[in-house]
Amino acid sequence: MTAGIDSSGTVRPQDDLYRHANGQWLAEHEIPADKAIYGAFHALWDTAEQDVRAIVEKTAAAGHPDGTEARKIGDLYGSFMDEDTIERLGAEPIAEQLALVRAIEDVPGLVSALGQLELQGVPGLFHYWVDADAKKSDEYVVYLMQGGLSLPDESYYREDNFAAERTAYVAHVARMLELAGLPDPAGSAERIMDLETRIAGHHWDRVKNRDVTLTYNKVDRSGLEALTPDFDWSVWLAGAGVPESAFEQVVVREPDFFTGAAAAVQDAGLDRWKEWLSWRIVHSAAPLLSRAFVDENFAFYGTTLTGAPELRERWKRGVGVVEQALGEALGQLYVAEHFPPAAKARMVELVQNLVEAYRQRIETLDWMGADTRQRALDKLGSFMPKIGYPDKWKDYSALEIDPADLFGNVRRSVAVETARDLAKLGQPMDRTEWKMTPQTVNAYYNPPMNEIVFPAGILQPPFFDADADDAVNYGAIGAVIGHEIGHGFDDQGSRYDGDGNLNDWWTDDDRAAFEQRTDKLVAQYDVLEPAETPGQHVNGKLTLGENIGDLGGLSIAYVAYQLSLDGAEPPEADGQRFFISWAHAWSTKTRPEEAARRLAIDPHSPPEFRCNAVVKNIDQYHQTFNSAEGDGMWLAPEERVRIW
């Protein structure tokens, strides 16, 4: 527990818990050259990545029979590591796609090409996927979402602080088009920027787009066509390989975006759209092409946008390609080597205590009425925890892998996953499905399934150690578990009932009391300014859901830790160890470019504030460290926010 703690002794936990717990770590560690951000999470990602690499290389060397998943893992990795073939091919892999664009003669041809390229992994003007219907959670439906941008967010096209990035982007597009041998690269780049700026003008911003009520707009086919009167959906569906029946009913997340984008298809000029679509082909393929494309792609999307000075080693990128195409096949091998049954059993116990702690807190809330309280308890009682790995693994038998055809392998993977997604329509809900692979260092809450999911990858130190004592585990993985449960009761997750349906189960008075507390939390975070980005602040509304998750998660984890003692007195220093474990989990250094990018697009607050801004609101923190008025972390009791 002392590792990383400020060695100077000048930073007290009452003044700055984050720097008290991590001062030495912050002083001694440098961000690796191939990363834009580095901390406890990222160190664990590195460990998982090394573990997966060992599995991949061992599998590749074993000479498994043709057609087996193990052989596919080895052959796909080999196709990425075959630099001689990739260099020899240059831009040849995208020649067919670029020829498709050159052959476009009219708007219907453009719409058809958008569909065809979507099926090949080239992102078009919008995104679509199949998921549980948010108001009929036992049925699948297609969702449509805004797209068409190549910068991280619509704000990059309009805000003054991103002016330099816009200039660099135009120059980057020109260089990429030149590498691909396309005509007038400089002029095309300017026109592409103009078109994307128009597209960005129709985008919803990220605060509006996280509102689950505003973004649920279910329409039938005639309703979709009314939104986009001049867009021929039959032509697009045929090109994309999507059956007409799939779009009998769809949920359109941002209706006016689709209206504006469809109008632009008609009147922005066919030649301009062809330039833009050619750029999207080059951009999406760049990581799979020769070194010149890879280096130029990284120079902008890596160095300019995130500040990372060095490209990741080839083996790391190769492992990422295999993860993307054969993630659960790798996951089976990973779990067998790195997730013992005892770890799962310990996690089950932790989850049970966290759920019980939430139940006790909900039962004693002073701001919630009896009717809403009972519905909240009903929802909590129906939570489904998933730990480690799925009960049923994905089948990759339809995926053909050619060890000499990297680009084709990735294209075929996209087609297989698209077919897998579309095959869900009209079928019973598959509640065994996971949205992350077991080796992923992360966790999530899925509202329509009312499930909390913890892959094996995150269930390692410093978050979880089966051999560590409870104060340490509850301060880290316990708070992560509590965070994910808390998403079921954050400002958006709380709009779903226990069956996973968008359903207003709150009384008006209780919702008003809830929002009074969340508004105070927004105000607390709005004034926070990361040291890496002077003058730029956290967006309290964008980060609200994650901030509620952090606050509830740590508060409830402390209660759950007390429950784990089963009435016994805790060791004297365990309160300190609990909060220092929480602080250690957020030890992070970030490059200024990446900090700015995350402020614009990330619904999570910067790591420093995920530590300090949360504990300021927790009475047990102030009691543990005997904080008082005048201390740097002091927050008067009446100003502290307690939600769950």
Automatic annotation (TrEMBL):
Name listed for the protein in its UniProt record: Peptidase M13
Similarity section: Belongs to the peptidase M13 family.
Pfam families: Peptidase_M13, Peptidase_M13_N
UniProt keyword list: Hydrolase, Metal-binding, Metalloprotease, Protease, Zinc
Signal peptide segment: none
GO cellular component: plasma membrane
Presence of keyword Zinc: yes
BP GO annotations: protein processing
Cofactor(s) the protein needs: Zn(2+)
PANTHER family: FI17812P1-RELATED, ZINC METALLOPROTEASE FAMILY M13 NEPRILYSIN-RELATED
Keyword DNA-binding among UniProt keywords: no
Domain Peptidase M13 C-terminal residues, every copy: 442-641
Domain Peptidase M13 N-terminal span(s) in chain numbering: 13-390
TM annotation in the entry: none
Domain of life, source organism: Bacteria
GO molecular function, one term: metal ion binding
